[in-house]
Amino acid sequence: PAGEAYKAWLRYARLDREFIEGNGYASWCGTVVTASAEDAALLATARRELAEGIESMLGRRPQESGNADEGSFLLIGTLGSAELQGLTDAAEREAIGDEGYILRAFEQPMRRFIAIGGNTDKGVLYGAFHLLRLLQTGQPIRDLNVVDRPASKLRMIDHWDNMDGSVERGYAGRSIFFREGDFLGDWDRVRDYARLMAAVGLNAVAINNVNVHETETRLIAPELLPSVARAASVFREYGIRLYLSVNFASPIQLGGLTTADPLDPRVREWWAERTADVYRHVPDFGGYLVKADSEFRPGPFTYGRDHADGANLLAEALRPHGGIVIWRCFVYDCQQDWRDRKTDRARAAYDHFRPLDGKFDENVILQIKNGPMDFQVREPVSPLFGGLQRTNQVLELQITQEYTGQQRHLCYLVPQWKEAIDFDTYAKGPGSTVAKAATGELFDRPLGGFAAVSNIGDDGNWTGHPLAQANFYGFGRLAWRPELSAEQIADEWVRLTFGSDPDVVATIGRMLLDSWPIYEKYTSPLGVGWMVNPNHHYGPNVDGYEYSMWGTYHYADCHGIGVDRTVRTGTGYAGQYHDAPAAMYESAESCPDELLLFFHHLPYSHVLKSGRTIIQHIYDTHFEGAEQAEGLVETWRRLSGKIDAERYESVLSRLEQQAKHAAEWRDVVNTYFCRKSGIPDAHGRQIY
Ligand code: GCU
């Protein structure tokens, strides 16, 4: 694979002459000096990345040897090395931590140089990618002075890849790791992927699906560990630690025991031994990711134990080796009776895990989906953020567009994630954002961060829809620095991916930023979710999940729609938040329009803050959304000739499909609610 789309945000397109000369890039970048006596692995990676990136952008490969005494050059190394010592002070070294870096230009009598220094070689690698990003986007570097570090320790991608090569909820081809029950062995591709990850600061990857089936259970068995080790070594070159999803019933399925009871000494011993063997093969193995007692996966409930017992069992096995357990909170009753209106799936994670706060070992992290349901187009934030105060936690997002158009529709998710990350839980008064809860800052937790379900596969452009690369990129950047705005990230990504033509930058940037609102308009109104076809979850089906066992209802009848989740008359879910957000959601007056039907069941004639009735809002947004989806096609066409044919055509054909499917959504949803409510569209538009 070689196309422009394959290179993603590491295209390193040749820069214009004026750019190079105006910024004096060539004079700084002619030589890369590596601090002496340092051959740490990641420094070699950083040097290679700089050399290749610079060669590609400036047309001349920098020399990779030289001394730091005179001339002009880039200087890379750890801050303890002879060459970089003295360039920073103790406070700065402290500020950048294990993974941060300084990037600073020095002009001295005999020499001028840009230092890229970290306390560790990993920091240096991130610094190198930062510099490359600046060059690619044409930033001045003359007075460079950056002191940076990631906001959180764990910045992780979860793959839902199965060993047969399929990817659960994958929309970009097959797995890049597995095929037909074994590793695929395309290590070059894995390395290219690791580069893309490291360039946006990601440092952890779980390579197999959280639904761990029979073959995948064997990933921790002796026969597959050598291949696991091989994969880990490729990621290691880029500072990324490998994790595996494990099956809680492994002691039975793999170990031949009769039980997987977390309190049984034989089970504990089995995990300790197996885990020690994993570390013999992969000394820096990250740890286990676990989906237990969820959607038919085995777990501690079978033995009358709770999630803390289950997680701590694995924590004990991993602790001697420095590994961690990432235990998912996606636990709910998936065999609910739709007639039962008391049970509310939205409550489940909090009801299960809040009582266990403080009972998890120090090397356990709970992984919490952004919303209480399941990656819908719009959901409130999980009340576990702010609810858990003595437990490490990680925010789980979904980059793969399961419910947001399956990479056939354009849906830039960073604005959605930003809303979750910036949400104020009020757990310790105003300013207690989800970002601070997830990083661990809010309650001073030792571990924390961000994880997201991958959207990549073996497609030539990685993500199926070329513009869906922006979501992967955006996740990495946000995990590094949650305060970046969706606009900044979009702008940066477009420049890296398509170059700096102002028209291209403005047009694609706008398309990205408009896309989630457009998608929301023609799909699910006012916080109602699940109006999709069962199983594959693509396309409109208003009652697709209405009479099912999955706890996913909108309760539309001829009078109204929505789920009453208030404390006063509903399921009480709104009461799981702290005072301020709880009060906001409890009353239909203060509940924001976009989540109104998530929290309230209301008549179609209810007047929104926008001044429109609910039914008219449904009609208006569906007509508008479908029209805007058409508009995206026209907007894209105007870029014809400014983008290479491969990517231009590929995006165009997807936008055309999207426009067609948006019309289908519009007509199905409008027709359904018109028939249910008997209320016509105030503007007399076509409803069937
Ligand atoms: C969703 C998705 C499943 C997945 C599950 C999970 O429900 O549809 O395919 O296994 O999330 O996050 O575990």
From TrEMBL:
Residues 135-462 form the Glycosyl hydrolase family 67 catalytic domain. Residues 463-685 form the Glycosyl hydrolase family 67 C-terminal domain. One of its GO terms (molecular function) is xylan alpha-1,2-glucuronosidase activity. Residues 8-131 form the Alpha glucuronidase N-terminal domain. Gene3D superfamilies: Alpha-glucuronidase, C-terminal domain, Chitobiase/beta-hexosaminidase domain 2-like, Glycosidases. Its EC number is 3.2.1.131. It catalyses: Hydrolysis of (1->2)-alpha-D-(4-O-methyl)glucuronosyl links in the main chain of hardwood xylans. This is Xylan alpha-1,2-glucuronidase. It comes from Cohnella thailandensis. The lineage of its organism: Bacteria, Bacillati, Bacillota, Bacilli, Bacillales.
